[in-house]
Specification:
Layout (H helix, E strand, L loop, with lengths): L1 H14 L21 H6 L18 E5 L8 E4 L2 E10 L9 E8 L5 E7 L3 E5 L2 E11 L2 E5 L5 E6 L4 H11 L4 E8 L2 E9 L2
Antiparallel strand pairs: 1-6, 2-3, 3-4, 4-5, 7-8, 7-10, 8-9, 10-11
Length: 197
């Protein structure tokens, strides 16, 4: 008789669990955890997120082993995109690595930068692009350029350097010419002019 009463109370306890055993709202039915991925994702709404990006996702630099760099190539020196003008390699020490001494000129302002790097380490190399545009007009210090697809761009400023003076002279003489624009690390600049063929 005692055993039957005890089994009845145990059965009742499982049929109607007390409030302390019941699951809290927003917990996992299997483990009673509120930190499962399914519960976190349940309230996620893509419309609530702000994804205001305009970049193509391409990196402005890529890593390359220092020993693979070559003269007249490009490299980032002290945070500036540079063209390598001199490169020397020192011999290895008893316990050390061979060191590469790099000398480069900034591709936009021609400032000289130097760096010393172990030959087995990686250096950042900028993605440099070169594009030609047909020169159309010069208006209040900004160039008007024609792209290959027929659209015009007027966002490049005429710089006060030798190339800028050359463009201004050719414009005043009424010449037809093409300008070469170099782009690296989010910066663009006219680096050369050439006569139309």
């Amino acid at each position: 008789m005692f055993g039957s009463v005890q089994s009845a109370t145990v059965h009742e306890a499982f049929a109607h669990p007390p409030a302390t055993i019941r699951r809290k709202r927003g917990t996992c039915p299997l483990c009673s955890s509120c930190h499962t991925k399914a519960l976190r994702m349940r309230n996620f709404n893509m419309a609530d997120e702000d994804f205001a990006t305009v970049s193509s996702g391409a990196s402005e630099t890529y890593p390359q082993q220092c020993s693979a760099l070559r003269k007249n190539g490009f490299v980032m020196l002290k945070g500036h995109p540079c063209k390598i003008v001199d490169m020397t390699t020192s011999k290895t020490g008893k316990h050390g690595h061979a060191k590469v001494h790099l000398v480069g000129l900034d591709i936009f302002n021609q400032k000289k930068y130097e760096d010393l790097c172990p030959s087995t380490h990686n250096m950042e190399v900028p993605n440099v692009t070169r594009k030609d545009y047909q020169f159309l007009d010069l208006d209040s210090g900004y160039l008007s350029l024609l792209e290959d697809n027929g659209t015009t761009r007027e966002d490049l400023k005429l710089l006060e350097n030798e190339i800028g003076k050359e463009i201004k002279t050719k414009f005043e003489n009424g010449e037809s010419f093409v300008v070469t624009v170099l782009k690296a690390c989010g910066e663009e600049q006219v680096v050369a002019t050439k006569v139309n063929n």
